[in-house]
Amino acid sequence: MGRMLYLECASGISGDMAVAALLDLGASEERLRNALDSLPVDGFEVRVSRVKKSGLDACDFDVVLDSAHENHDHDMAYLHGGGDEVARLSGGGLDDGCAHAHHHEHGHHAHESDERDHHAQGHHHEHGHHHEHAPHEHDHNHEHDAHGHHHEHRGMPEIEAIIRDADITDRAKEIALRIFGIIARAEAKAHGVPADQVHFHEVGAVDSIVDVVSFAVCFDDLGLDDVVVERLCEGRGTVRCQHGVLPVPVPAVSHVVAEAGIPLSIMDVQGEFVTPTGAAIAAAVRTRDALPARFTVERIGLGAGKREYAVPSLLRAMIIQEELKKESDNPIASGRWAASNEVRFGLDEACAISEAHIWKLECDVDDCTGEALGFTMERLFTAGAREAHFMPIYMKKNRPAWQIQVICTRDRIPTMEAELFAHTTTIGIRRTPMERTVLPREELRVSTPFGPARAKRVTLPDGRRRTTPEHDSVQALVEASESAPKEAVSDDTLQRPLTYQEAYALVLRAAEALEG
């Protein structure tokens, strides 16, 4: 039990709506802008503003592409199924529901993750500072190349490299990569190609990368682990794109919710409310499928979509606190010990320990090679496993074997099982629901003579704190010290390359100095 994020997707979800909702909850806009400045991607700017949706004040997050990178797929006003009703609701304009993912070899449409494709009006990127404007007429019959832009493609390896090179936390990188992985798998299933062959138009990939990275940075900044997503609400009809007419929900969204096991509710409203990126975000961070029986609301954030439908396109996000039992019913919380020789922790109100449900999957194999097992572990972590272990065991007939244990959230079970069945020789997987207690944690950023470093600090039940330097930062300092000029540091003890232990101690001292 503890603080958690609740995403109320009663009128859909898209990438820009999700980012806006988290910013409205209190995620640092300054930290977000610093993170986006570090992206090795050009041709965009972001605008954060306040807008009114059905009379409600909401946050708007907009990715504006410059003229050289402008995505004309967005500008082509493709018509949603629903005819006059949709035109009436949009003020006479046409909805642009086309997206920009394509399989590189086949070149056909793969409905992808551009939020402005599904929620924006007309030439939104040319008028990004106007949140309501007249529809813009456009010739629907011209070809994409007629705009005079040479559109390169980015595949998953290129997108992964961009994210890994960004100056964001390891957790934010992992979340962003997980989201893109979900999108790629969904598009691959929709079009019958391997996930590593799904490519994105360069101009489309820019705003998709910005949306996904922005969400990951904001989510990481809020410091929450548990996320409740009960369902996604979607509209009806069809969306006409450059390569044909697709039903709503579009195939990519259908595959995302099917893989993640997220319930989908269809509203009696024409239009597309759930985008592939929005669905992938929900699938990537969802750890619970139901709200607690009792909870209090700490903060509320509203993220605005760009379209006007019969229902307001708003994503409401809440930070909630599950209500604990009364102290009289909880001897630990009240500080009463069951026995003097038992080690128990009293819970301080300032130290909100989080309890959450987690799942353990396990299987036993006695005929897998070491190479196959190593590859499987990499695949499990890439797919979102919280932890994975290989335990040596003896099976029947005294055969040496390995027990593979995977820790994951409930929504990741189908993906984890698919990886285990695909890459090991197991024919059965056991599932065990587990409860866990999680200490409050925060990330620290410190400066050292050899560059910046990160550490994590947890708060123990008695209020004491424990700080641990991040391994990647320690390793980076060791490597930096090997090439740093001697005059770069003044301390005589730092006139030579650091050992791992010395770099670890250096980060630890800097982190502890922050507290002092």
From TrEMBL:
It comes from the Bacteria. It catalyses: Ni(II)-pyridinium-3,5-bisthiocarboxylate mononucleotide = pyridinium-3,5-bisthiocarboxylate mononucleotide + Ni(2+). Its EC number is 4.99.1.12. GO terms for biological process: protein maturation. Residues 95-153, 452-493 are annotated as: Disordered. InterPro entries: Ni_insertion. Keywords: Lyase, Nickel. GO terms for molecular function: lyase activity; nickel cation binding. Residues 100-109, 121-133 have a biased composition (Basic residues). It holds the Pfam family Ni_insertion. It is an enzyme of class 4 (lyase). Belongs to the LarC family. Involved in the biosynthesis of a nickel-pincer cofactor ((SCS)Ni(II) pincer complex). Binds Ni(2+), and functions in nickel delivery to pyridinium-3,5-bisthiocarboxylic acid mononucleotide (P2TMN), to form the mature cofactor. Is thus probably required for the activation of nickel-pincer cofactor-dependent enzymes. This is Pyridinium-3,5-bisthiocarboxylic acid mononucleotide nickel insertion protein. It comes from Slackia equolifaciens.
